[in-house]
């Protein structure tokens, strides 16, 4: 009995190491997606430190526990995933991930990582093939989101841009259908509608409203609070919808979460626009003071507009002063 107990203990220990390696890889990507220090190099250094620790943990798995096909595929997948956490393309990561999908073609997460890795070297068609192959194994919201994102990239400069962007929107919707409460899927749909707005001539405000609604749904997911791009992109939509106060609030939130987004530049654009509008209203106000009792309706209404505008201006300047 003691021999069997020892054997089971060893199996449990091996599985525990693999489980810890998976968690280390997941934690590495959480850092990538949520850690945005003022100095970008600090982020890279942090990722390097954590990836080295994760690789050491992975390498602690005994060689005899990597020989079976399913064991080897998991090892290669995790090693490739860890190596691919950085922004630049990594050939070694691609090699490990390629081995993983050859050993276990049904490993959807490995296909997802391989597609992301190949995307980094600019081979968008091959990256899309990886995502498509992954989806052939079964529906997956994360892969659908990445496919949707990739299609928006592929649409840039293409002759059928609007058609490709529409495919991106459809895949984003499919991801939401798999999990209606997933904030990242809603965020992705918001991005798809925003891209659609620009791809179709930047005139259809319904696309902006659809984008805004998707972002608002994304914000309901607490996990998205750490995503600075959500607040930044939502602020962009509000700027185009002329919701300047909301736009500035969004840029403020984005700037606090990731100083590298240069949200201050967008704030300056809004403040400059507001300054121009204020100058126009001042001129109009002066012109009103010299008119007689037969002032046109358009000018008489401008006084009420000016009151509302000045109230909004005070609030806007209060927000912008924190950023500029």
Briefly say what this structure is.
Helix content is 77%, strand content 0%. It has helices spanning 2-34, 40-59, 69-83, 91-103, 108-120, 124-136, 141-155, 161-178, 183-199, 205-219, 228-240, 244-257, 263-289, 297-320. The chain starts with a helix and ends with a helix.
3D structure, described in words:
- The structure is a single chain.
- This protein has 324 residues and is an all-alpha fold.
- The protein has a domain of 87 residues: Serine Threonine Protein Phosphatase 5, Tetratricopeptide repeat (Alpha Horseshoe), CATH 1.25.40.10.
- 77% of the residues lie in helices and 0% in strands.
- Helix 13 packs antiparallel against helix 14.
- The longest helix is centred in the N-terminal third of the chain and has 33 residues.
- The termini are far apart.
- The relative contact order is 0.05.
């Amino acid at each position: 009995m003691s021999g069997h107990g020892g054997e089971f203990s060893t199996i449990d220990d091996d599985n525990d190491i693999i489980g810890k390696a998976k968690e280390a890889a997941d934690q590495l990507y959480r850092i990538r997606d949520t850690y945005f220090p003022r100095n970008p190099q600090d982020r890279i250094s942090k990722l390097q430190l954590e990836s080295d620790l994760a690789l050491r943990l992975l390498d602690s798995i005994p060689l005899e526990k990597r020989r079976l096909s399913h064991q080897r595929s998991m090892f290669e997948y995790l090693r490739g995933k860890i190596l691919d956490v950085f922004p630049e393309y990594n050939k070694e990561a691609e090699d490990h991930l390629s081995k993983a999908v050859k050993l276990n073609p049904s490993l959807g997460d490995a296909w997802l990582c391989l597609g992301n890795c190949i995307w980094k070297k600019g081979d968008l068609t091959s990256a899309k093939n990886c995502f498509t192959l992954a989806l052939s194994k079964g529906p997956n919201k994360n892969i659908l989101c990445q496919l949707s994102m990739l299609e928006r990239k592929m649409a840039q400069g293409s002759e059928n841009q609007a058609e490709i962007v529409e495919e991106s929107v459809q895949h984003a919707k499919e991801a939401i259908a798999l999990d209606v409460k997933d904030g990242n899927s809603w965020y992705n749909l918001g991005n798809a509608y925003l891209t659609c707005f620009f791809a179709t001539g930047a005139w259809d405000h319904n696309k902006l409203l659809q984008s805004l609604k998707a972002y608002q749904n994304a914000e309901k997911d607490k996990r998205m609070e750490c995503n600075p791009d959500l607040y930044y992109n939502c602020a962009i939509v509000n700027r185009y919808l002329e919701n300047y106060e909301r736009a500035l609030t969004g840029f403020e939130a984005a700037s606090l979460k990731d100083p590298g987004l240069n949200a201050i530049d967008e704030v300056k654009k809004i403040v400059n626009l507001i300054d121009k509008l204020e100058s126009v209203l001042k001129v109009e106000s002066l012109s009103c003071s010299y008119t007689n009792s037969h002032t046109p309706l358009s000018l008489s209404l401008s006084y009420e507009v000016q009151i509302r505008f000045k109230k909004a201006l005070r609030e806007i300047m209060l927000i912008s002063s924190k950023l500029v």
